[in-house]
Predict the structure.
Amino acid sequence: MPASLALRGFGLLLLLALAIYLPALRGPFFWDDDELVYQNQDVVSPAGVMHVWWNTAASEYTPLATVSYWFEWGLWKRATLGYHLDNVLLHAVNAFLVWLVLLRLKIPGAFLAAVLFLVHPVCVESVAWISERRNVLSMAFYLLAILGYLRFQTEGRNRDYWLALALFGAALLSKATVVILPVTLLLIVWWVNGRVGRKDVLRMAPLFGLSLVAGALRIWFEFQRGMNAGTLPDSSFAGRAVAASQAVWFYLGEVFWPVHLSLIYPRLAGSPILAAIGAAGLAAALLVLFSKRSGWGRPYLLALCYFLLAIGPALGLLKMAYLQHADVSDHFAYMALIAPLALVAAGASRWGSTGRTLLAAACLVFAGLTLQRSWFFGHPEELWRLTIRQNPPAWTAHEHLAIARYERADIPGAIDGFQRSLELHPSNFRAWFNLGTMRHLQGRYPEAAAAYAQALALNPALVQARERLEACRRTMEIVKQRQPER
Protein backbone atom coordinates (compact mmCIF):
# COMPACT_ATOMS: atom_id res chain seq x y z
CA MET A 1 0.00 0.00 0.00
CA PRO A 2 1.38 3.46 -0.88
CA ALA A 3 2.38 5.48 2.18
CA SER A 4 0.18 8.41 1.13
CA LEU A 5 -2.90 6.16 0.97
CA ALA A 6 -2.09 4.64 4.35
CA LEU A 7 -1.64 8.10 5.86
CA ARG A 8 -4.94 9.37 4.45
CA GLY A 9 -6.73 6.23 5.62
CA PHE A 10 -5.36 6.53 9.16
CA GLY A 11 -6.15 10.24 9.26
CA LEU A 12 -9.75 9.54 8.28
CA LEU A 13 -10.08 6.81 10.92
CA LEU A 14 -8.57 9.03 13.61
CA LEU A 15 -10.84 11.99 12.81
CA LEU A 16 -13.88 9.72 12.83
CA ALA A 17 -12.82 8.21 16.16
CA LEU A 18 -12.36 11.65 17.72
CA ALA A 19 -15.76 12.76 16.44
CA ILE A 20 -17.75 9.85 17.84
CA TYR A 21 -15.85 9.71 21.14
CA LEU A 22 -15.81 13.46 21.73
CA PRO A 23 -18.49 13.31 24.50
CA ALA A 24 -16.42 10.75 26.44
CA LEU A 25 -13.27 12.88 26.49
CA ARG A 26 -14.61 14.94 29.40
CA GLY A 27 -15.36 11.84 31.46
CA PRO A 28 -13.76 11.61 34.93
CA PHE A 29 -12.20 8.55 36.50
CA PHE A 30 -14.83 6.03 37.55
CA TRP A 31 -15.40 2.47 38.82
CA ASP A 32 -12.00 0.75 39.21
CA ASP A 33 -9.95 3.62 37.76
CA ASP A 34 -8.94 4.43 41.34
CA GLU A 35 -7.36 1.02 41.91
CA LEU A 36 -5.64 0.93 38.53
CA VAL A 37 -4.57 4.55 38.14
CA TYR A 38 -4.62 7.33 40.73
CA GLN A 39 -4.45 5.14 43.86
CA ASN A 40 -2.01 2.68 42.31
CA GLN A 41 1.47 3.12 43.79
CA ASP A 42 3.00 1.61 40.65
CA VAL A 43 1.49 4.57 38.75
CA VAL A 44 1.87 7.51 41.13
CA SER A 45 5.31 6.74 42.63
CA PRO A 46 8.57 7.38 40.74
CA ALA A 47 9.78 3.83 41.42
CA GLY A 48 6.54 2.28 40.18
CA VAL A 49 7.81 1.89 36.64
CA MET A 50 10.29 -0.67 37.95
CA HIS A 51 8.25 -2.23 40.76
CA VAL A 52 5.28 -3.05 38.51
CA TRP A 53 7.18 -5.86 36.79
CA TRP A 54 7.36 -8.00 39.92
CA ASN A 55 4.33 -6.72 41.82
CA THR A 56 2.27 -9.77 42.89
CA ALA A 57 -0.29 -7.80 44.91
CA ALA A 58 -2.20 -6.47 41.89
CA SER A 59 -5.52 -8.00 40.82
CA GLU A 60 -4.15 -8.72 37.32
CA TYR A 61 -0.67 -8.88 35.79
CA THR A 62 -0.72 -6.16 33.11
CA PRO A 63 2.59 -4.33 33.67
CA LEU A 64 2.84 -2.72 30.23
CA ALA A 65 -0.61 -1.15 30.55
CA THR A 66 0.35 0.09 34.02
CA VAL A 67 3.56 1.59 32.65
CA SER A 68 1.47 3.53 30.12
CA TYR A 69 -0.51 4.99 33.05
CA TRP A 70 2.78 5.80 34.80
CA PHE A 71 3.96 7.92 31.87
CA GLU A 72 0.58 9.63 31.64
CA TRP A 73 0.51 10.37 35.37
CA GLY A 74 3.83 12.15 34.94
CA LEU A 75 2.29 14.29 32.18
CA TRP A 76 -1.17 15.20 33.46
CA LYS A 77 -1.80 13.61 36.87
CA ARG A 78 -5.60 13.56 37.51
CA ALA A 79 -6.58 15.42 34.33
CA THR A 80 -8.40 12.65 32.45
CA LEU A 81 -8.40 14.19 28.96
CA GLY A 82 -4.97 12.79 28.12
CA TYR A 83 -5.89 9.26 29.23
CA HIS A 84 -9.06 9.35 27.11
CA LEU A 85 -7.25 10.74 24.07
CA ASP A 86 -4.68 7.96 24.25
CA ASN A 87 -7.41 5.32 24.36
CA VAL A 88 -9.15 6.86 21.34
CA LEU A 89 -5.82 7.05 19.48
CA LEU A 90 -5.12 3.39 20.22
CA HIS A 91 -8.60 2.44 19.02
CA ALA A 92 -7.99 4.29 15.75
CA VAL A 93 -4.63 2.52 15.43
CA ASN A 94 -6.37 -0.82 15.97
CA ALA A 95 -8.91 -0.05 13.23
CA PHE A 96 -6.03 0.91 10.92
CA LEU A 97 -4.21 -2.35 11.73
CA VAL A 98 -7.40 -4.34 11.07
CA TRP A 99 -7.40 -2.74 7.62
CA LEU A 100 -3.76 -3.72 7.00
CA VAL A 101 -4.26 -7.30 8.21
CA LEU A 102 -7.32 -7.82 6.00
CA LEU A 103 -5.49 -6.33 3.03
CA ARG A 104 -2.63 -8.77 3.61
CA LEU A 105 -5.16 -11.61 3.63
CA LYS A 106 -6.72 -10.26 0.39
CA ILE A 107 -10.17 -10.04 2.00
CA PRO A 108 -12.54 -7.71 0.07
CA GLY A 109 -13.95 -4.65 1.80
CA ALA A 110 -10.98 -4.35 4.17
CA PHE A 111 -11.33 -0.62 4.78
CA LEU A 112 -15.10 -0.91 5.27
CA ALA A 113 -14.47 -3.60 7.88
CA ALA A 114 -12.02 -1.28 9.65
CA VAL A 115 -14.60 1.53 9.71
CA LEU A 116 -17.28 -0.87 11.00
CA PHE A 117 -14.96 -1.91 13.80
CA LEU A 118 -14.05 1.69 14.60
CA VAL A 119 -17.67 2.87 14.97
CA HIS A 120 -19.16 -0.28 16.51
CA PRO A 121 -21.00 0.58 19.76
CA VAL A 122 -19.74 -2.53 21.56
CA CYS A 123 -16.24 -0.98 21.45
CA VAL A 124 -17.28 2.02 23.55
CA GLU A 125 -16.67 0.29 26.87
CA SER A 126 -13.10 -0.57 25.87
CA VAL A 127 -12.33 2.89 24.49
CA ALA A 128 -14.18 5.31 26.79
CA TRP A 129 -13.29 3.57 30.06
CA ILE A 130 -9.77 4.48 31.14
CA SER A 131 -9.27 1.15 32.93
CA GLU A 132 -9.76 -0.71 29.65
CA ARG A 133 -6.46 0.62 28.32
CA ARG A 134 -5.51 -3.05 28.70
CA ASN A 135 -7.90 -3.96 25.89
CA VAL A 136 -6.91 -1.37 23.30
CA LEU A 137 -3.18 -1.60 24.04
CA SER A 138 -3.00 -5.41 23.97
CA MET A 139 -4.94 -5.53 20.72
CA ALA A 140 -2.54 -3.07 19.07
CA PHE A 141 0.41 -5.34 19.84
CA TYR A 142 -1.65 -8.41 18.91
CA LEU A 143 -2.44 -7.06 15.44
CA LEU A 144 1.14 -5.89 14.92
CA ALA A 145 2.32 -9.41 15.79
CA ILE A 146 -0.05 -10.82 13.15
CA LEU A 147 1.32 -8.41 10.57
CA GLY A 148 4.88 -9.33 11.50
CA TYR A 149 4.14 -13.04 11.10
CA LEU A 150 2.38 -12.49 7.77
CA ARG A 151 5.44 -10.63 6.52
CA PHE A 152 7.60 -13.53 7.70
CA GLN A 153 5.33 -15.92 5.81
CA THR A 154 5.62 -14.01 2.54
CA GLU A 155 9.21 -12.73 2.71
CA GLY A 156 10.86 -15.44 4.82
CA ARG A 157 13.00 -13.12 6.94
CA ASN A 158 13.73 -14.50 10.39
CA ARG A 159 13.84 -11.04 11.92
CA ASP A 160 10.12 -10.67 11.14
CA TYR A 161 9.41 -13.88 13.04
CA TRP A 162 11.34 -12.71 16.10
CA LEU A 163 9.67 -9.31 15.86
CA ALA A 164 6.26 -11.02 15.87
CA LEU A 165 7.32 -13.03 18.92
CA ALA A 166 8.45 -9.85 20.75
CA LEU A 167 5.22 -8.05 19.87
CA PHE A 168 3.23 -11.01 21.15
CA GLY A 169 5.13 -10.78 24.43
CA ALA A 170 4.22 -7.08 24.65
CA ALA A 171 0.57 -7.93 24.00
CA LEU A 172 0.58 -10.53 26.79
CA LEU A 173 2.13 -8.00 29.17
CA SER A 174 -0.77 -5.68 28.37
CA LYS A 175 -3.56 -8.24 28.83
CA ALA A 176 -3.44 -12.03 28.87
CA THR A 177 -6.58 -12.59 26.77
CA VAL A 178 -4.38 -12.38 23.65
CA VAL A 179 -3.09 -15.89 24.45
CA ILE A 180 -5.17 -16.97 21.45
CA LEU A 181 -2.60 -15.58 18.98
CA PRO A 182 -0.87 -18.92 18.11
CA VAL A 183 -4.18 -20.54 17.20
CA THR A 184 -5.23 -17.37 15.35
CA LEU A 185 -2.05 -17.60 13.26
CA LEU A 186 -2.74 -21.25 12.47
CA LEU A 187 -6.24 -20.27 11.28
CA ILE A 188 -4.64 -17.61 9.07
CA VAL A 189 -2.14 -20.12 7.69
CA TRP A 190 -5.05 -22.43 6.84
CA TRP A 191 -6.87 -19.54 5.16
CA VAL A 192 -3.83 -18.57 3.07
CA ASN A 193 -2.43 -22.02 2.23
CA GLY A 194 -5.47 -24.26 2.52
CA ARG A 195 -3.66 -26.48 5.00
CA VAL A 196 -1.58 -26.40 8.18
CA GLY A 197 1.71 -28.25 7.94
CA ARG A 198 4.05 -29.66 10.53
CA LYS A 199 6.47 -26.76 10.02
CA ASP A 200 3.67 -24.28 10.73
CA VAL A 201 2.87 -25.97 14.02
CA LEU A 202 6.54 -26.09 15.03
CA ARG A 203 6.89 -22.38 14.34
CA MET A 204 4.09 -21.79 16.82
CA ALA A 205 5.89 -23.65 19.63
CA PRO A 206 7.56 -20.54 21.16
CA LEU A 207 4.29 -18.63 20.93
CA PHE A 208 2.40 -21.46 22.59
CA GLY A 209 5.06 -21.44 25.32
CA LEU A 210 4.47 -17.73 25.97
CA SER A 211 0.71 -18.35 25.97
CA LEU A 212 1.01 -21.09 28.59
CA VAL A 213 3.12 -18.92 30.89
CA ALA A 214 0.81 -15.92 30.49
CA GLY A 215 -2.28 -18.09 30.96
CA ALA A 216 -0.88 -19.61 34.14
CA LEU A 217 -0.03 -16.15 35.48
CA ARG A 218 -3.52 -14.88 34.66
CA ILE A 219 -5.17 -17.80 36.46
CA TRP A 220 -2.92 -17.35 39.50
CA PHE A 221 -3.67 -13.63 39.77
CA GLU A 222 -7.38 -14.24 39.16
CA PHE A 223 -7.68 -16.82 41.92
CA GLN A 224 -5.24 -15.30 44.42
CA ARG A 225 -5.95 -11.61 43.93
CA GLY A 226 -8.84 -10.84 41.59
CA MET A 227 -11.57 -12.77 43.41
CA ASN A 228 -10.87 -11.33 46.84
CA ALA A 229 -13.52 -8.66 46.27
CA GLY A 230 -16.56 -10.92 46.48
CA THR A 231 -18.13 -14.29 45.97
CA LEU A 232 -19.43 -15.70 42.72
CA PRO A 233 -23.16 -16.41 42.37
CA ASP A 234 -22.66 -19.95 41.08
CA SER A 235 -19.24 -21.51 41.40
CA SER A 236 -20.17 -24.87 39.87
CA PHE A 237 -18.72 -25.72 36.47
CA ALA A 238 -22.13 -26.88 35.23
CA GLY A 239 -23.65 -23.50 36.01
CA ARG A 240 -20.82 -21.69 34.26
CA ALA A 241 -21.11 -23.99 31.23
CA VAL A 242 -24.80 -23.15 30.88
CA ALA A 243 -24.03 -19.42 31.07
CA ALA A 244 -21.13 -19.81 28.61
CA SER A 245 -23.32 -21.44 25.97
CA GLN A 246 -25.83 -18.62 26.19
CA ALA A 247 -23.07 -16.00 26.30
CA VAL A 248 -21.81 -17.05 22.86
CA TRP A 249 -25.18 -16.26 21.31
CA PHE A 250 -25.43 -13.06 23.33
CA TYR A 251 -22.13 -11.82 21.92
CA LEU A 252 -23.06 -12.88 18.37
CA GLY A 253 -26.28 -10.93 18.73
CA GLU A 254 -24.36 -7.87 19.87
CA VAL A 255 -22.27 -7.92 16.70
CA PHE A 256 -25.29 -7.48 14.46
CA TRP A 257 -27.78 -5.75 16.79
CA PRO A 258 -25.82 -3.54 19.21
CA VAL A 259 -28.73 -1.79 20.88
CA HIS A 260 -29.73 -1.58 24.55
CA LEU A 261 -26.10 -1.96 25.60
CA SER A 262 -25.47 -1.95 29.34
CA LEU A 263 -22.47 -1.43 31.57
CA ILE A 264 -23.66 -4.35 33.75
CA TYR A 265 -26.05 -6.77 32.06
CA PRO A 266 -28.78 -8.76 33.85
CA ARG A 267 -27.89 -12.37 34.50
CA LEU A 268 -28.46 -14.70 31.59
CA ALA A 269 -31.50 -16.94 31.88
CA GLY A 270 -29.50 -19.98 32.97
CA SER A 271 -31.79 -22.51 31.32
CA PRO A 272 -29.99 -25.83 30.71
CA ILE A 273 -32.41 -26.61 27.87
CA LEU A 274 -31.71 -23.33 26.08
CA ALA A 275 -27.99 -23.81 26.68
CA ALA A 276 -28.10 -27.30 25.19
CA ILE A 277 -30.01 -26.06 22.14
CA GLY A 278 -27.54 -23.22 21.70
CA ALA A 279 -24.52 -25.52 22.00
CA ALA A 280 -26.08 -28.00 19.57
CA GLY A 281 -26.76 -25.20 17.10
CA LEU A 282 -23.15 -24.04 17.23
CA ALA A 283 -21.85 -27.59 16.85
CA ALA A 284 -24.14 -28.18 13.86
CA ALA A 285 -23.04 -24.92 12.23
CA LEU A 286 -19.38 -25.84 12.68
CA LEU A 287 -19.92 -29.33 11.24
CA VAL A 288 -21.77 -28.01 8.18
CA LEU A 289 -19.20 -25.30 7.53
CA PHE A 290 -16.34 -27.74 8.02
CA SER A 291 -17.88 -30.09 5.48
CA LYS A 292 -18.01 -27.16 3.02
CA ARG A 293 -14.56 -25.79 3.91
CA SER A 294 -13.31 -26.16 0.35
CA GLY A 295 -16.19 -24.12 -1.06
CA TRP A 296 -18.70 -21.55 0.13
CA GLY A 297 -18.26 -22.47 3.80
CA ARG A 298 -14.62 -21.44 3.98
CA PRO A 299 -14.98 -17.75 4.99
CA TYR A 300 -17.86 -18.50 7.34
CA LEU A 301 -15.87 -21.26 9.04
CA LEU A 302 -12.88 -18.94 9.51
CA ALA A 303 -15.06 -16.15 10.92
CA LEU A 304 -16.95 -18.42 13.32
CA CYS A 305 -13.84 -20.24 14.52
CA TYR A 306 -12.04 -16.97 15.18
CA PHE A 307 -15.05 -15.49 16.95
CA LEU A 308 -15.38 -18.51 19.26
CA LEU A 309 -11.63 -18.52 19.87
CA ALA A 310 -11.51 -14.81 20.74
CA ILE A 311 -14.57 -14.86 22.97
CA GLY A 312 -13.60 -18.14 24.66
CA PRO A 313 -11.45 -16.72 27.50
CA ALA A 314 -14.34 -14.45 28.55
CA LEU A 315 -17.07 -17.09 28.72
CA GLY A 316 -16.44 -17.83 32.37
CA LEU A 317 -15.74 -21.55 32.09
CA LEU A 318 -12.91 -20.77 34.49
CA LYS A 319 -13.82 -18.61 37.47
CA MET A 320 -13.38 -14.88 36.92
CA ALA A 321 -13.78 -12.00 39.34
CA TYR A 322 -16.06 -10.17 36.92
CA LEU A 323 -18.65 -12.95 37.23
CA GLN A 324 -19.69 -11.43 40.55
CA HIS A 325 -21.15 -8.55 38.51
CA ALA A 326 -22.54 -10.21 35.36
CA ASP A 327 -22.15 -13.15 33.00
CA VAL A 328 -21.21 -10.98 30.00
CA SER A 329 -19.66 -7.61 29.27
CA ASP A 330 -19.05 -5.51 26.15
CA HIS A 331 -15.32 -5.15 26.75
CA PHE A 332 -14.89 -8.93 26.50
CA ALA A 333 -16.09 -8.80 22.86
CA TYR A 334 -13.63 -6.14 21.63
CA MET A 335 -11.17 -8.47 19.95
CA ALA A 336 -13.82 -10.95 18.77
CA LEU A 337 -15.63 -8.36 16.64
CA ILE A 338 -13.01 -8.38 13.89
CA ALA A 339 -13.93 -11.58 12.05
CA PRO A 340 -17.73 -11.25 11.82
CA LEU A 341 -17.43 -7.58 10.81
CA ALA A 342 -14.85 -8.51 8.15
CA LEU A 343 -17.23 -11.20 6.89
CA VAL A 344 -20.07 -8.65 6.64
CA ALA A 345 -17.86 -6.11 4.86
CA ALA A 346 -16.56 -8.71 2.41
CA GLY A 347 -20.08 -9.87 1.62
CA ALA A 348 -21.35 -6.31 1.15
CA SER A 349 -18.44 -5.40 -1.13
CA ARG A 350 -19.37 -8.29 -3.45
CA TRP A 351 -22.85 -6.83 -3.88
CA GLY A 352 -21.41 -3.78 -5.58
CA SER A 353 -22.76 -0.27 -4.97
CA THR A 354 -25.90 -1.60 -3.26
CA GLY A 355 -23.89 -3.52 -0.70
CA ARG A 356 -21.53 -0.61 -0.07
CA THR A 357 -24.49 1.77 0.36
CA LEU A 358 -26.13 -0.53 2.89
CA LEU A 359 -22.84 -0.90 4.74
CA ALA A 360 -22.33 2.89 4.77
CA ALA A 361 -25.82 3.24 6.26
CA ALA A 362 -24.95 0.68 8.93
CA CYS A 363 -21.76 2.63 9.72
CA LEU A 364 -23.80 5.82 10.18
CA VAL A 365 -26.24 4.06 12.50
CA PHE A 366 -23.40 2.50 14.49
CA ALA A 367 -21.61 5.86 14.70
CA GLY A 368 -24.76 7.47 16.07
CA LEU A 369 -25.18 4.75 18.68
CA THR A 370 -21.52 5.06 19.64
CA LEU A 371 -21.82 8.84 19.98
CA GLN A 372 -24.83 8.37 22.26
CA ARG A 373 -23.10 5.67 24.31
CA SER A 374 -19.91 7.70 24.69
CA TRP A 375 -21.98 10.59 26.12
CA PHE A 376 -22.95 8.37 29.04
CA PHE A 377 -19.30 7.55 29.69
CA GLY A 378 -18.66 11.28 29.79
CA HIS A 379 -21.34 11.56 32.51
CA PRO A 380 -20.77 8.57 34.84
CA GLU A 381 -23.62 9.42 37.23
CA GLU A 382 -26.06 9.22 34.32
CA LEU A 383 -24.40 6.01 33.19
CA TRP A 384 -24.99 4.45 36.61
CA ARG A 385 -28.62 5.63 36.58
CA LEU A 386 -29.09 4.09 33.13
CA THR A 387 -27.49 0.84 34.31
CA ILE A 388 -29.89 0.64 37.27
CA ARG A 389 -32.88 1.21 34.98
CA GLN A 390 -31.64 -1.59 32.73
CA ASN A 391 -30.63 -3.90 35.56
CA PRO A 392 -32.16 -2.96 38.96
CA PRO A 393 -30.34 -5.77 40.89
CA ALA A 394 -26.91 -4.44 39.80
CA TRP A 395 -25.43 -3.85 43.25
CA THR A 396 -22.27 -2.33 41.81
CA ALA A 397 -24.30 0.32 40.01
CA HIS A 398 -26.12 1.28 43.23
CA GLU A 399 -22.79 1.49 45.05
CA HIS A 400 -21.15 3.74 42.47
CA LEU A 401 -24.21 5.91 42.04
CA ALA A 402 -23.99 6.43 45.80
CA ILE A 403 -20.34 7.47 45.41
CA ALA A 404 -21.35 9.97 42.72
CA ARG A 405 -24.00 11.39 45.05
CA TYR A 406 -21.44 11.72 47.83
CA GLU A 407 -19.17 13.65 45.47
CA ARG A 408 -22.08 16.10 45.01
CA ALA A 409 -22.35 16.36 48.82
CA ASP A 410 -25.67 14.47 48.77
CA ILE A 411 -25.02 12.45 51.93
CA PRO A 412 -28.62 11.16 52.44
CA GLY A 413 -28.74 10.06 48.77
CA ALA A 414 -25.37 8.34 49.12
CA ILE A 415 -26.56 6.47 52.24
CA ASP A 416 -29.66 5.26 50.40
CA GLY A 417 -27.47 4.00 47.55
CA PHE A 418 -25.04 2.14 49.80
CA GLN A 419 -27.88 0.57 51.75
CA ARG A 420 -29.57 -0.59 48.54
CA SER A 421 -26.28 -2.04 47.30
CA LEU A 422 -25.83 -3.94 50.56
CA GLU A 423 -29.37 -5.30 50.40
CA LEU A 424 -28.43 -6.85 47.07
CA HIS A 425 -24.87 -7.90 48.00
CA PRO A 426 -24.31 -7.97 51.79
CA SER A 427 -20.69 -9.17 51.49
CA ASN A 428 -19.46 -6.02 49.76
CA PHE A 429 -16.98 -4.73 52.35
CA ARG A 430 -16.32 -1.52 50.40
CA ALA A 431 -19.98 -0.53 50.58
CA TRP A 432 -19.97 -1.20 54.34
CA PHE A 433 -16.88 0.97 54.73
CA ASN A 434 -18.42 3.76 52.64
CA LEU A 435 -21.68 3.54 54.58
CA GLY A 436 -19.65 3.88 57.78
CA THR A 437 -17.97 6.97 56.33
CA MET A 438 -21.33 8.55 55.57
CA ARG A 439 -22.62 7.86 59.10
CA HIS A 440 -19.34 9.19 60.50
CA LEU A 441 -19.80 12.44 58.59
CA GLN A 442 -23.32 12.72 60.02
CA GLY A 443 -21.97 12.28 63.54
CA ARG A 444 -23.90 9.04 64.03
CA TYR A 445 -20.96 7.25 65.61
CA PRO A 446 -22.59 4.00 66.81
CA GLU A 447 -23.99 3.33 63.33
CA ALA A 448 -20.65 4.26 61.75
CA ALA A 449 -18.80 1.93 64.12
CA ALA A 450 -21.18 -0.92 63.31
CA ALA A 451 -20.62 -0.42 59.57
CA TYR A 452 -16.82 -0.26 59.99
CA ALA A 453 -16.91 -3.41 62.10
CA GLN A 454 -18.88 -5.22 59.41
CA ALA A 455 -16.37 -4.12 56.75
CA LEU A 456 -13.54 -5.44 58.92
CA ALA A 457 -15.32 -8.74 59.49
CA LEU A 458 -15.52 -9.21 55.72
CA ASN A 459 -11.98 -7.95 55.04
CA PRO A 460 -9.67 -7.94 58.10
CA ALA A 461 -6.88 -6.38 56.01
CA LEU A 462 -8.83 -3.13 55.58
CA VAL A 463 -6.54 -0.94 57.68
CA GLN A 464 -8.49 2.27 57.13
CA ALA A 465 -11.67 0.68 58.49
CA ARG A 466 -9.82 -0.38 61.64
CA GLU A 467 -8.48 3.14 62.13
CA ARG A 468 -11.92 4.70 61.58
CA LEU A 469 -13.53 2.18 63.97
CA GLU A 470 -11.05 3.08 66.71
CA ALA A 471 -11.68 6.78 66.09
CA CYS A 472 -15.44 6.22 66.41
CA ARG A 473 -15.02 4.30 69.65
CA ARG A 474 -12.81 7.02 71.13
CA THR A 475 -15.36 9.66 70.20
CA MET A 476 -18.22 7.64 71.68
CA GLU A 477 -16.21 7.19 74.90
CA ILE A 478 -15.60 10.93 75.17
CA VAL A 479 -19.28 11.63 74.59
CA LYS A 480 -20.24 9.07 77.24
CA GLN A 481 -17.85 10.62 79.76
CA ARG A 482 -19.32 14.06 79.20
CA GLN A 483 -22.95 13.01 79.55
CA PRO A 484 -23.08 13.22 83.40
CA GLU A 485 -21.76 16.79 83.24
CA ARG A 486 -24.80 17.78 81.19
